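In this supplementary section we document a worked example of the pipeline. Step one takes a protein sequence of length 391 as its only input; no multiple sequence alignment statistics are reported here. Step two produces a three-dimensional model, which step three serialises into structure tokens for compact storage. The input and output of this example are shown verbatim.
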Amino acid sequence: MELQIFRKTKISAQLKALCAWQKMKQLRSFIKKEFYHIFRDPRTVLILFGIPIAQLLIFGTVIKNEIKDVHIAFYDQAKDETSLKITNKIISSGYFILDRNLESTADIDAIFRKGKVKQVIVFESDFGEKLTREGKAKVQLIADASDPNMARLTISYTTGIINDYIRDLYPNLELPLQIEPEVRMYFNEEMSSAYMFVPGVMALILMLISAMMTSISITREKELGTMEILLVSPLRPSQIIIGKVLPYLILSIVNAFVIVLIGHFVFRVPIMGSFILLMLETVLFILMALCLGILISTISKNQMTAMFISMIGLMLPTIILSGFIYPIDNMPLVLQWISHIMPARYFITIIRGIMLKGVGLLFVWKETLIIIGMTLFFIALSVRKFKIRLE
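The serialised model returned by step three reads:
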């Protein structure tokens, strides 16, 4: 009797072990199948491996606390041996590029409004003589603070180079001569970070809302099968597109208006230039983003694809490669080239120029033409792809 019970217990244990082994085998097969499905889909592999690697490489090369090839100008009233030596030391440091030598202080405002020069260094008259006779001399460092991060870096580097010059010139002096930098932040005396992030956030929000919502809206019609119904309706394709896009155009303009008002009244960001020109440029950028959204909808099969392209393809490049947070001049040359196809780069330049510097169309006409060109390009490409899909 006990032997039979033992045999039954043994058989039961074997059956349980066999069942457990079968379940493990099924689980392994299921896991293998999932791995197979993952690696069979190139998009999934791209999300898992391509995007993290790309983000690491991009952020690792973009996020830097040093400067490189920053354009500066000099207004040397002394033009003596000491001022020339300091000028040569600053230029030969590798951090700065001499853009031009100014003839008067009246040129400072004009050169800053053009946007290329980020700092002007002014030597007082009899600079070298005062340094030798009185032991002190003054140099004025004027930075374009419409980008506060870049302004801080340029001032810090220039001050360090000037101090190194004194230490190298008189290494054994217990009380070395002093060059006192007088720092002035142009366009942003208080160094408010709002001056930087309000134009950038405005570009980011308008790009995402206009492009992403338009692409998702049109793709939804295709996904649900209602686009075919609309196409056979009395409405023309152009009327359908206008009907889908116009609400987002109006809502985006309202958004832009609200952002500008909040930036001005809450964060004290000035509007130095023409408000009408500011809104016209904003409407142009919104139209470009809407056309980009239409193009995304023509190449997207479903809403998830449209959202993925809009989020990954627009949001990250707008943040990283537009000059919103990280100075473009500090980026590797390859990323600087890529940044030229980022629409937000030109819009941020326009917004900062009009709001912070008070410039007119004569100073931002190049950026305006580029955005117009991008708009026409996206329209032409969207129409072509839309016709191909109909055929």
